[in-house]
Write a structure and sequence with these properties.
The chain is of the alpha+beta class. It is built from five helices and six strands, in the order E-E-H-E-E-E-H-E-H-H-H.
């Protein structure tokens, strides 16, 4: 995608939120990543799904997980409070166990190899619109290899089990340590 400031083509970051049962995935493109952007991407994904999941299995990105641990992980404070606002429990993936989050890993590979490979876009919005059309026409209508059913049909069954979105949006804050004089 052509970057608006440098006017050069740059790779974007691809965010994916995949539902475990139906394999319905929301793919979002962004230029950079931070904790606030990661929270905004989750909020947009929940909005597009029309509800909120009860549990999120996290990749151990610094935006969400500061200290990965099987029993007591340390979550980023902003992301932790964001998930609490949405009523979601976070389960960080075990370190060096990619098999624990295979659904998301395979959906990232699927999106990188299929609709985006070799294409160039002038704006991020144009690329996102193309990715959304592809997801609606191809990814959601495919017969999933493991389930042997159409993703869109399974999502219609899974959608009623999603929790409603919160009435108010999450209010972002900055978290930091400060040193003050006595």
């Amino acid at each position: 995608v052509r970057h608006p400031e440098t006017k050069k083509y740059r790779r974007t970051r691809l965010f994916a939120l995949t539902l475990a049962w139906s394999r319905k995935t929301v793919w979002l493109l962004t230029w950079k990543s931070s904790t606030k952007i990661w929270c905004e991407l989750h909020a947009e994904a929940f909005r597009r799904l029309g509800g909120v999941t009860s549990v999120v299995v996290l990749d151990n990105l610094r935006e969400g997980v500061i200290e990965p641990d099987v029993y007591d992980p340390t979550l980023n404070p902003l992301y932790r409070d964001f998930l609490a606002h949405y009523g979601v429990v976070a389960l960080p993936a075990r370190v060096r166990h990619p098999d624990r989050k295979g659904k998301v890993e395979s959906s990232i590979g699927y999106a990188q190899k299929t609709p985006l490979k070799g294409l160039r876009f002038e704006t991020l919005e144009e690329a996102q619109a193309y990715l959304d059309r592809w997801a609606e026409r191809w990814a959601d209508t495919r017969i999933h290899g493991t389930k042997k059913r159409q993703v869109a049909a399974m999502f219609l069954e899974e959608r009623p089990h999603l929790k409603p979105l919160p009435a108010e949006p999450f209010r972002f804050f900055q978290h930091g340590n400060r040193t003050v004089h006595l």
